[in-house]
Give the backbone structure.
Amino acid sequence: MTQRDVPTLAVIADLHGNLPALEAVLADLERVQPDAVVIAGDFVNRGPQSHAVVARASRLGFAAISGNHDTWLASLARGEHLPADWRTTWATPVRRATEELTPEDRRWLEALPFSLRVDLPGADPALIVHGSPRHAREGMGRMMSTERLAEALAGVEERLVIGAHIHYPYEHWLGNQHVVVIGAVGCPFNRDINAQYGLFTWRKDRWRFEHRSVAYDHEPLYAAWRASGYLDDGSLASELMMLEHRTARTQYVPFFEWAQAHGLELTRENFAVFSAERE
């Protein structure tokens, strides 16, 4: 990337085992040429190419931080905290993603920091986190109250705080602090199936945010789902994660939570009922 008169920063996140989406964003970054690129975590899971994404991303030379899926799968790969349903078809996508990771992948993920301060010449520093400044699983989106956000930002000095995790772009102000959550590269939840990321440009006295949406061919991703064995055991969970890529809408977690709340099994028939109620 090249330096220019106006500082620019690109932040990408939530790659989630989707190599075609990552390649599309990398091609767009070549056109945009920002001064710096940071990857804000969640390289793995939710997609069929966790190893391929880690192998590609780890060799780019970009600064990076960890996401909750990265630390989770690294712990599973160590054999720690395996869930009771680890060998069931509901756990198939997580289990296969974990099995994809090589020892080198795991070491790289484990070495990633929780957060990163970016300080480009001529601009205010920015703090980059995956979820919030206090927890990688705490998204700073529309569901977070102003009170909780203030608690999460306590002690943060940077005027710009950039997060990810919620898989849709969102921004708001709290006093003089600008909180921006970027869209997801690999598995968006804003009904836009394109690969998405955030571009920040320093104008006058603050960072300006541009949400970028990059079209790409999804067929290689769907082919990877079929070829990688994620669907071989009839896993509904794998099908739902694939559906998330087709619809750019969360499916897996809401159905799981709905089924638990109603005491129902995780079946296709019950997913049909859930989907009808949801609509």
Summary: The mean pLDDT is 96. Residues 165 and 272 are 27 Å apart (CA to CA). The longest strand covers residues 195-203. The radius of gyration is 19 Å.
